[in-house]
Amino acid sequence: MKRKVKGEEPEDQSHAGTSTLKVSAKAKPKKRQKAASSSKSEVLWPEYFHSAINTVLAFISSKKQLAVTFQAIRTSVEAQLKHPLEITSVAELRALLPDLVKFSYVPKNELQVSGDKDKDYELLSQSQLLSKGPEESYVLVLELADNLQLKKSKNTGFAYSQPPAMSISALQKLIDRRNIACKEALDNLVIHAGPNEDPTLLLQDAGREFIPVDPTPAIPSEAVAGPSQIVPEPEARLPIPDIIEEITAQSWYKEQIIHHQVLPPKAAKLGSLDPLPSTSILQALADSRKVSTFYSHQASAIEGVRNGSHVVVSTSTASGKSIIYQVPLLMALEQDSDAKAIFVYPTKALAQDQKASLEQILFSCPGLSHLKVDTYDGDTPQDARVTIRETASVIFTNFDTIHASILPHENNWRRFLKNVKLFVVDELHYYTGLFGSHVALILRRFRRVAAAVGNRRVQFISCTATLANAGSHMEKMFGLEPSEVLAITEDGAPANQKDFLVWDPPLIDPLQPALGRASAMAEATGLMRFLMKRGVRVILFCKIRKICELAMKTIKADLSNEGRYDILKRVKPYRGGYSREDRRRIEADAFSGQLLGIVATNALELGIDIGVLDAVIMLGFPMTIPSFRQQAGRAGRRSKDSLTVLVTEPYAVDQYFANHPEELFEKKLDEIMVDVDSKVVLEAHLQCASYEMPISLSDEMWFGPSMRELCEKSLVKDKDGWYHPHPNFLPYPSGHVSIRGAQEEKYMVVEMSENDNTLKTIEEVEVSRAMFEVYEGGVFLHQGMTFITKEVSHDTRVAKVLKADVNYITSPRDYTDVDAMRTYRIRRAKSCLAYYGKVHVCVKVFGFFKIRNKTILDAVEVDTPPWDRDTTGFWIDVPKSILDLLRSLQLNVAEAIHAASHAFLIQFPLAEDVRTECKAAEKEYKVTESSRKRPARLIFYDSIGKGGGVSAKAFDHGRSLLEATLLQACDIVTNCPCEEGCTKCVASPSCKEANKVMSKLGATIILKGLLGRELDYSHENIQAEVYNGPDTIVDAPPVLAAQGIEIEES
Ligand SMILES: [Zn+2]
Ligand SMILES: [Zn+2]
């Protein structure tokens, strides 16, 4: 590696604000410590080091405040030093001690510079801030980062405590530590300077790159960006291996890469078609898609369809799947211009993309260019519907529409259904869980109706991610026999080299491991900036919207600090919740190559085509391996190499993959399971099917052997033996069957403007999240910008926010109590009783923390009324004997109850519409005894704002459903090979409190106890979990019961 001397092009010095002055390759931070200690006090410093550097540090070091404006410090340092303090000296200090010294511009409207020049700024109060409004100018602020490092508590993963008031001796220790760090860095600089290098010049040279840039937008970025800072065109960027080498040579590189896997390039494998498609089709392919040959998997799929099979193709993303649908369609239309087809994509954006592509190829195909392709879904205007039905050859639709609009009106659709030749379902793996069961039954209803109008020859074509059981999944979803399905799993598409990195954030200070690791957020966003500067087009995936917004905010702040507006304007966040126009605009920018970076949630995972991306960074493991691979698949198109980086978080599941990275890439995906025998779902679709056409016993061929029993029990039989819908489901049974779970009510977040009274809706937030995202005084993040929530109305469900460029975020402090109020029914489930009844949910946001750099600046109390609602739910009390056992083993009872509740919900087929009371680390690990005690009870309630009723259904299906779920949960938790709990057993992706309060062992004991099973815990496991803090759980009190309830035994 190059030695850095004056006159050379500056190397990148700006990773996550932790760059260091680079002297030589050997002078990496870790080694520097050793070098310095071995040559203590022998190093002769240039005078400059004493006068300009060490003294300055000593002076600013004695400040115990979080931050000081440069103006204030300059005045007092100059008074003491008797010579001017240059901005360059501080910048040099930052170059020397980048992890300690933070020196950057902060928006002025956050500061209140007091008349007393030596006094530090204060953050404005809420009302002052609001009255002041946004401002565009900035103030230079100096802060010392070790003031910010608070003790990280084991379980919260977040420093939920105020900075401690510092004693004089503690302050002295802090200053000493800073001095030692500074001395070592300076010593090291002298030791490692080459014979012809002047340490003073080296330092001054490095410091120049750390002079903060005033980000007032008036300064054009070009003025700041020198010739060496021009971002290369993505086409001209360096190969990924070179960039990785560059990363490992950076001074901020501290062995973060703990796994590096290279998938070598793969040549295309071509296949041939015999006979070839017509010349018109070949011409259309060449003209519209630039396709003249077929990859082997495309050729086999097209052959398969031609031979009458139903085809599923399970290959990598970007392997040219649309050809597999389009060519057979064109061939069918050439044979019979009355032929019809149905295309279903999981997202609207994806469907729009593919519709445009299909229209183009049809248009280029002589003889077929007049044929019409239309979208037919819930947004299609009523007056357009008839025309589409009559004239379209291909409709793009979704299962919701097929379920609620097409099948129930089969008489209108008869001509279309009669002529459907192809039915395409893209991304088949998307249809899993409860939704998958619904879709499988809708497909059976479709096949039944089509057969009844005389069409038994519909062919199904699907593509999926690489699944272990693509063929059997296809059979199960569509109700097909193995002999009818052709599964193609060999991928003939070429691929360029792919590099995968697992990136573990480094220890903040190797000498003080207790400080923990650097934040995954800082690492991921820093890496993203580094890559974008090199012309690498990056997508950063975040798990939830809040993280997505925070990441965007971080990138925005860091890029402005560096003066890189050229890059900043080419980064955009993208996620659900944004308005449709915003999303379309971002998609268009992304696709046209305007963007260098996208910060996204999983909304983009399934993906609309956003063009060529070179790199994917995942901030934290995305919960499942299919998601991981799907996200990884977003990078790298045929002609370019690509990079995928998983930045690990401190959670158990991330750490598991940090230790077993090979599983991320090599492990076959678990089989996707779809339960087509679920009686709850089947009964619902029998009601719908019997409306479409009365059901007879011969329909068992579609609905399976349990059909008869359900029809007898829940449908109405006429005198001729035909079954019709139960009157409760009329007039439209499909209106009673929600296939995605009910749509949740939403809060509108509206932006108030300063000047006039106009309100603009910027986002919609689901009721279940609204309490925690919009509360008065809190910061609401939207597209990386900060807004202060001024007013929330729970009645109209509107939250008014005002744009305010603050550099802190807020985190609500709340509790949610879920209490059983009244018992309506009781059922026995194995050796315990389950209760159904009225449940009261109370969410109280009693305040919030203002947080910056993970440090609490302030705890604000708010006095908003609690949000109270009554709903229905069911619960199971944890008996005293189990509680006693848990306590005698010194296990945390709250952890056990929370984990057991999740274990139940994970196995519960109707889980999407029920919630449980999640336990928060902030409350459960409090050192002082809390007066808030919660009953020892697994409680589940119908989501509020979704219509409810699921709990009652769970009870109707009675013992079998509750008991089966308990049994399954117990088996899974007992046998799951994970150590601390994973998403298969106790950790739920939907946990409101991020699964921090969890004991897998405790859950096992509760579940076994409820089922009356023998407890065989091993002593070692328990030792590891011994908990000594206060207990927050009390015996479940009796619940008032309606009169005369009898225990239902079966
Ligand atoms: Zn597990
Ligand atoms: Zn939870």
UniProtKB/TrEMBL annotation:
Q: Where is the composition biased (Basic and acidic residues)?
A: 1-14
Establish whether keyword Kinase is in the entry.
Answer: no
Keyword ATP-binding recorded: yes
Boundaries of every Helicase C-terminal domain copy: 526-680
Q: Which GO terms describe its biological process?
A: interstrand cross-link repair; nucleotide-excision repair
Segments carrying the region annotation (Disordered) are 1-36
Q: Which residues cross the membrane?
A: none
Q: What keywords are annotated for this sequence in UniProt?
A: ATP-binding, Helicase, Hydrolase, Nucleotide-binding
Domain of life, per UniProt, equals Eukaryota
Gene Ontology CC annotations of this record: nucleus
User: Can you name one GO molecular function term for this protein?
Assistant: nucleic acid binding
Compositional bias (Basic residues): 25-34
Which segments constitute the Helicase ATP-binding domain? 302-485
InterPro entries for the chain: DEAD/DEAH_box_helicase_dom (IPR011545), Helicase_ATP-bd (IPR014001), Helicase_C-like (IPR001650), HRQ1_WHD (IPR055227), MZB (IPR018973), P-loop_NTPase (IPR027417)
Which PANTHER family does the UniProt entry name for this protein?
A: ATP-DEPENDENT HELICASE HRQ1
Mind telling me what this protein is named?
DEAD/H helicase
Give the classification, highest ranks. Eukaryota, Fungi, Dikarya, Basidiomycota, Agaricomycotina
